[in-house]
Design brief:
The structure is a single chain. By secondary structure, the protein is α/β, with parallel strands linked by helices. Helices cover 20% and strands 31% of the residues. The chain has a single domain (5-121), classed as Roll (2,3-Dihydroxybiphenyl 1,2-Dioxygenase, domain 1). Strands 1-4-3-2 form a four-stranded mixed β-sheet, with helices on one face. Strands 5-7-6 form a three-stranded mixed β-sheet, with helices on one face.
């Protein structure tokens, strides 16, 4: 058993896919679905996220694990793009990345649609 994909609603699927793909290190993204109704971000393990047009009635929390080098690139991208981030879900814009749970690092950030993303590294 392995994870395959997750679909998230968003007002602008292309913008959400482009945002997340850039933050996560320039991952590939594309239009998908039989009628082109999704924008898909492909992850390095073969799983993917689908962004679908629709209102965000309740923001979702999605967490990723990255190797240390990729995690550091995520932090650098967030800093360069001036996207608020932090290492504490209660204070997600504190600008810190050190993991409060004792591993290498952890950051939380929100995408323009309001979804709450987390990236960790051991």
């Amino acid at each position: 058993m392995r994870f395959d994909h997750l679909a998230l609603p968003t007002p602008d699927p292309a913008a959400s896919a482009a945002f997340l793909a850039a933050v996560l290190g320039g991952l590939p993204f594309r239009v998908a679905g039989p009628e082109g109704e999704f924008c898909q971000v492909d992850l390095t393990d073969g799983s993917f996220l689908l962004f679908t047009a629709g209102p965000v009635t309740e923001p979702h929390h999605v967490a990723f694990h990255a190797e240390r080098e990729a995690f550091t690139a995520v932090v650098r991208h967030l800093e360069a793009a001036r996207i608020p981030f932090g290492n504490d879900p209660e204070v997600p814009a504190n600008g810190q990345w050190e993991d409060l749970h004792g591993t290498f690092g952890r950051v939380y950030f929100t995408d323009p649609a309001g979804h709450f993303f987390e990236v960790t590294a051991r």
